[in-house]
Amino acid sequence: MNWNNWFRQIHRWLSIAFTVAVIANIIAMVREKSSVWVGLLALLPLTLLLLTGLYLFVLPYATRWRGAGRNGG
Question: Is 45 domain-assigned?
């Protein structure tokens, strides 16, 4: 499996982790037992989602730029 597929797979699993963290945050807010760590629980997967998402967003443009450099044009 190459790096691009790894990033896609990691991005998918991070989205599941982020969804679970948001649901846990909502449950904590409804139960009125919210603490700071529950609120911050979603930030780690969200940050990693941002990084992997930006990589996946730039990937098609980077392959075009590399391809144009090889073909001379």
Answer: yes
The pTM score is: 0.77
Does residue 71 fall inside a structural domain? no
Number of domains in the chain: 1
Q: How far is CA 56 from each of CA 48, 50, 59, 62, rounded to the nearest angstrom?
A: 12, 10, 5, 10
In a domain, 73, yes or no: no
Q: List own/partner pairs for 49-55 with CB under 8 A and 24 or more apart.
A: 49/11, 49/14, 49/15, 49/18, 52/7, 52/10, 52/11, 52/14, 53/11, 55/7
Amino acid at 51: L
pLDDT at 29 over 80: yes
